């Protein structure tokens, strides 16, 4: 595998094999602008492009303006082929003995201007998010929650393996009161940004769905379970989830994950035979081997106080992202650049692999013991949750950076 | 009540008391631009503004650019006070013996350029729609559907009167197939566009919610009931509703409906006492007396073949639009200019007042007889649905124009 002329630590999520895209600003330049992450540096693409950085890539020459935009939407809208060209070109520029050393490697002035230490850059929302659809294709999570609320015999609804859906635990409503959630939870998810739009009335066929997926981010779909139980029937979630969602700062392009295609490990004959024809895929390796880790940093502790809440893998998703795109549009519904499609909670089958406290503590009945002696049923004020994820091996990780958030005390409403 | 120097038929939905805003284009000028409707004319606000039409309204002078925009988002974002000034000013301009006759009344050249016959203008989406939330606060519809799926004893979920929610009929899933819907339905709804945004984390208090509502449109939330039953459990609706939604072309400003405030006619003590404190309103007249009519134009017939499917009234909504805004944001969720909040289906209590075929035909069990001898359980290819609505009395109607759509044959997917 190729090495870079930059020194990149073997453990970095941003190896030469990755080249994820994001939006940054710095104290020296508060302008929001595109960048890629490489090792512990960010390459400022605005600065890079405006100083002839792309001079050896003719196919992008008439599109250089996208690198001066405050979001990645215009770059995403250029389509998969351009994304491929730009990512490959940047790999060549950064690669030891790569092409065009004069562009950056042997151009100390541009290096000084365009290569910024990651700790010195502020990340911003990479795309202006359009519509947002959260699916529920983590089979184990669906089963685990189903057991909690309907028992093992009815854990999965009969339609579960036929169509991508989400969960709606049945509840016993009481007279409601407004108070801070006592069951604040997380959901470990993988999400995809749409690049290529489709016209209203023009469904995206399963064999073309890949072209519409710009790339991926980690997601934490914060959930107030007590509110959710109350409002969920018959609505489905609303205010229990609309207060905030966190994504990781760098978009890992679909191309970067190609080498890590694999089969879902939760698919079975019932799924393969039961899935509707318009969702059937030619290839079997439509999942990704992406390993996740969710850490909790208890209130009052520093980063050294972090401990692992769970690990996970994207192979535990039953449906592929192309299937989500095709199902979303089979009615003619149009997707737009910047729309975000999330997987739903990703869980394994045993404690330590559950992507939510709901599962890990059996809805609060079995508290988790933390190293600092405290216990948790759900999150407490001051708790930090840090989701990381990566494919590949040491020296060549394709990672996402941190999807991190801290729970602040509620602001009294009345 | 004031009269206009323009001749306006007494039956026009666009009386001087209305002045609804929309986006138009014409064959002569394909540019999308703002306009208001008055009688059977549209006043081109781009032409009007660029020819000194607003010269007597200083408060708008630095904002005239909003009238050259292809959507009303920028105008909406100016806030309720500016909306009030502009609407009142236009009323004065159009009013018999009104102020500033030189601006338009005695300016034949500008009249010729800016006043366009409605049949000659093409309407376009009035605002770029941001997020869209469909509620379910039509109490009678909730009860009617509840009876159909759960029986009269459990028609309404215990939480129904406490929070604005939507419906999720229980279903008995079978192995699915992909085919054109055989239960294509309508939903008569009223929807509000958001003007003033709120910051993430900054809930909108109930006593300030009015400031965030730009105005109202009629909505038809087309629904494929057979698909809905299949996917609804446990998801709630997705592909059964994401294929299309129709709204009326002119936005009736919140100010124009002020005179028609009234009490909800479905509220009761259980609602008044059970509603959460953050949703309690000082005034009781938080509903609107808006009368609706839904007409069906059977396949193959012209406009003279239309017949009334149902009538309705916005007084049948249990929650007010300010309550929807406040509930949506009580978690800190942010609303943006152009977000659309819909009421859910509006129904009365007897045949002829049901806002959906689901209710009117008891889920297809009791077909409706049409004048042309045909029957309908749900919609057929070629059927047209035309929703109209108005407040006020002859000569002074505050109406919405037509929310109209025609069912085209399905395009075979495979």
UniProtKB/TrEMBL annotation, chains A, B:
The active site is at residue 141. It catalyses: 4-fumarylacetoacetate + H2O = acetoacetate + fumarate + H(+). Mg(2+) binds at residues 221, 241, 245. InterPro entries: Fumarylacetoacetase (IPR005959), Fumarylacetoacetase-like_C (IPR011234), Fumarylacetoacetase_C_sf (IPR036663), Fumarylacetoacetase_N (IPR015377), Fumarylacetoacetase_N_sf (IPR036462). Pathway: Amino-acid degradation; L-phenylalanine degradation; acetoacetate and fumarate from L-phenylalanine: step 6/6. Residues 17-126 form the Fumarylacetoacetase N-terminal domain. It comes from Cephalotrichum gorgonifer. Its cofactor is Mg(2+); Ca(2+). Its EC number is 3.7.1.2. It comes from the Eukaryota. Residues 171-388 form the Fumarylacetoacetase-like C-terminal domain. It holds the Pfam family FAA_hydrolase_N. This is Fumarylacetoacetase. One of its GO terms (biological process) is homogentisate catabolic process. GO terms for molecular function: fumarylacetoacetase activity; metal ion binding.
